[in-house]
Design goal:
Number of strands: 32
Oligomer: single chain
Radius of gyration: 29 Å
Strand content: 15-25%
Shape: globular
Structural class: alpha/beta
DNA sequence: AGCACGCCGACT
DNA sequence: GTCGGCGTGCTC
């Protein structure tokens, strides 16, 4: 830069947009920026927040070069976090700018929170004492700063009394710093009583944190074995060392109970982070994490991109949960990225689950992860007595979906004044509607999935893309009236049957399309826990960590659902889901039961669930995957192909097969694996491609992108299988 | 990702 | 005659 330029230097700045590399901006003389500084820069017609990046700035045409407008008064993004952004971008084949965008999603937080004006007592005395003045002086006795209205309220006087005292110099103005969103957690607040096996695991985790280095521990133990208390000890250790902690939860909006458990242990709530957070709170949490005021965050996957300065531990609770996958924009699995974050930050990571993912199990048995197992001997008494109901031998009556045995048990439970849970992972009334006259089936005009009937709403709804239409009375194909047949059950239809059989019972349906959203859902869950329902019929959202103390029967309406969809993880997913659901019963000390309606009672998943022998299931699943070269052994890389039509997407898939030397190992999965990708009329298929190395796979996809500029943006790599192959 | 520019259908 | 659909291209 020439001597008389108004700018001293140029800096690389990562802007929140799909740029492959940082843009170069001029640094006005007198402005100081360092890597990590958050700056305001002009970008096209608008102003955006960007992050000053590492390395030198590109040489850019001086006419294009524009100046940084402002450096925000905000702690710079720390080095490990910047390397994390680069790493995630490289690994997911996303633009670094798009990863940076995830970090900058609290735009108001870059300016410091304002200090508020307060008043504090001086040595001066008022000229005359009155009753009101006396009350004020008494209330303000501690020498602490008050807000004007706050003190008036506390003393029970009008604020003019305060103004009068202030005018006489009895109070003086001071500035009060912003209040922390949560109090500081105290690692010694409530020392837990740990069972011997918990103590062993807790010591192991504590030692990992104390040793101050990267390492992953899989914390593995059945429902009720006390995993949370155990990893809280690791949290305590990290806090004692002055480090920040991140606890990832799959769906924090519904895990209110978790925050309370945390408070019981540490005397304060953790900072919360999820998409439902009010914008004002969002800013505060972001800012206070950056400043180090918030020491512990409990959050959804996006919390991984909070600007921690002194992160010293990540716990991933329910590490197997598919909610950790983000499947839009930047595709990542937060569990895997947490492991990477720990590696880059040089601190330990704890993965916790009663039903670990197969890949984490394999990493543990191979010694890449430490394995802390809770035997759960103390929880065993509470486990429900589980049985498979062979639907071939004991079929339900025609037109119904509950077997006589299950119906009988519901009745018995009802009589005892206890609660039943019927689980069916399918929203709506019926998954398919057809015309009995011409055989016409109602499909989605946008994405070709079947339309699901929602009878309460009188609609046919596509569960992939959200398309909805009114349920017609006549067949659109042959015009016949009143001959449309609902095929198969959804939760609404099960509710219909239950209400017909047990009209006196209080029945409630819980699914994600409940009117009133998350708030209503939370209220309903609390009501159920209090005993305000006899029979609960729900989709998978009832499986997630909610305790229903009077729930003594769990009936799985269709235990086979999810086993037959061609997903290599179908068995594993079903095992995990059924374990969680059946675990909802038996938290009571009372005798409790679980019934699984199945046409495949000999299936390994059913056997494992019924016998409680998870070990045999894992062993079998691992052996089978090893033989088939499936994850986590094949080092599979995934590709999502998207196109406007199904035929076009399949064409892309064929082209990929032709172009890939590993063609024999490419296989196409239906949209079931990535339902969220089926949006806006774009068909997306995930291809799993088995290559020698991930880098080969990436090179292959890059070549595909280079060959067909029309395909840019329609072919992406998603690698989410083997979280340690990259370290 | 935004946002502008730009070219073809139904309407105040 | 305009309003408005989303295809293409650009941002230091």
């Amino acid at each position: 830069m020439s001597k008389d330029s108004p700018f001293d230097a140029a800096a690389p700045v990562l802007v929140p947009m799909p740029a492959e590399r940082p843009y170069t901006y001029a640094v006005p003389s007198g402005m100081r920026v360092v890597p990590g500084s958050i700056v305001r820069v002009p970008l096209g017609p608008r102003q955006v927040a960007g992050i000053v990046w590492d390395g030198g700035a590109d040489a850019v045409d001086a006419r294009k070069l524009r100046p940084i407008e402002e450096v925000f008064d905000c702690p710079p993004i720390a080095g490990p976090m910047r390397r994390f952004v680069d790493w995630v971008a490289h690994y997911t084949l996303s633009a670094p700018g798009m990863v940076a965008r995830m970090l900058l999603r609290a735009p108001e937080a870059f300016d410091p929170e304002p200090w508020t004006e307060g008043i504090v007592r001086t040595d001066a005395l008022p000229d005359r004492m009155t009753a009101a003045r006396a009350r004020v002086l008494e209330a303000a006795d501690g020498g602490l700063a008050w807000t004007r209205t706050g003190l008036a309220h506390a003393a029970g006087v009008s604020s003019t009394v305060i103004d009068g005292l202030k005018a006489q110099g009895v109070f003086e103005t001071v500035m009060i710093p912003p209040r922390p969103v949560v109090a500081a957690p105290d690692p010694a607040y409530a020392q837990p009583q740990l069972a011997p096996d918990q103590q062993v695991a807790a010591d192991m985790l504590r030692a990992g944190v104390a040793a101050d280095g990267f390492g992953v521990t899989l914390l593995d133990g059945v429902t009720g074995s006390g995993k949370t208390e155990v990893y809280f000890e690791a949290v305590a250790e990290a806090l004692e060392k002055g480090r920040q902690v991140l606890i990832l939860l799959p769906e924090i909006a519904l895990t209110h109970a978790f925050l309370e458990r945390f408070q019981d242990r540490f005397g304060a709530k953790p900072g919360e982070w999820h998409s439902d957070l009010a914008p004002r709170m969002r800013e505060k949490v972001w800012r206070q994490v950056a400043e180090g005021t918030v020491r512990v965050v409990a959050g959804a996957r996006s919390a991984l991109f909070l600007p921690f300065r002194e992160l010293g531990l990540i716990v991933v609770d329910e590490e197997h949960d598919p909610a950790y996958k983000q499947e839009d924009r930047v595709f990542y699995n937060a569990r895997d990225m947490a492991v990477v974050r720990g590696h880059l930050g040089g601190f330990p990571v704890v993965l916790s689950s009663a039903t670990p993912s197969v890949e984490s199990r394999v990493n543990a048995t191979r010694g890449r992860y430490r394995h802390a197992v809770l035997s759960g001997r103390f929880a065993e008494a509470a486990l429900p007595d589980l049985k498979a109901v062979d639907m071939r031998r004991a079929p339900p009556a025609k037109g119904s979906f509950l077997s006589p045995l299950l119906t009988e048990q519901i009745g018995a439970t009802l009589e005892k004044g206890e609660q039943s849970l019927l689980f069916l992972n399918r929203r709506g009334y019926a998954p398919l509607t057809l015309c009995r006259v011409c055989g016409h089936r109602f499909g989605c005009p946008v994405c070709s999935a079947w339309l699901v009937e929602h009878r309460f709403r009188g609609q046919l709804v596509c569960h992939h893309c959200g398309h909805a239409e009114k349920r017609p009375e006549a067949c659109p194909e042959c015009g016949t009236f009143d001959h449309l047949a609902a095929c198969g059950p959804g939760v609404e239809r099960i509710a219909e049957e239950v209400v017909a059989t047990f009209p006196e019972a209080r029945t409630i349906v819980l699914s994600s399309d409940i009117v009133g959203g998350v708030r209503r859902l939370r209220l309903e869950l609390e009501a159920i826990a209090k005993g305000d329902a006899d029979i609960v019929i729900g989709t998978q959202l009832v499986a997630k960590g909610h305790n229903f103390p009077n729930m003594t029967l769990v009936g799985v309406v269709d235990a086979d659902l999810g086993l037959a969809n061609g997903d290599p993880r179908a068995a594993e997913r079903t095992f995990q889901l059924l374990s969680q659901v059946t675990g909802r019963a038996g938290r009571t000390g009372k005798k409790s039961h679980g019934l699984l309606q199945t046409y495949q009672p000999d299936h390994p998943v059913m056997q494992a669930i019924v016998s409680g022998n998870a070990e045999s299931f894992y062993a079998r699943e691992i052996a089978e995957r090893e033989r088939a070269g499936l994850p986590p052994f094949g080092r599979l890389a995934g590709v999502i192909v998207s196109a406007a039509t199904r035929a076009e997407a399949e064409g892309h898939a064929r082209a990929l097969r032709r172009a890939a030397p590993e063609a024999a190992d490419i296989f196409v999965l239906g949209p079931a694996e990535a339902p969220l990708a089926l949006v806006a009329g774009r068909h997306r298929f995930r291809l799993l491609v088995q290559g020698e190395r991930r880098s080969d796979m990436q090179a292959f996809v890059r070549a595909m992108l280079a060959n067909g500029p029309k395909q840019r943006g329609s072919v992406r790599v998603q690698v989410d299988i083997d979280p340690q192959s990259f370290l």
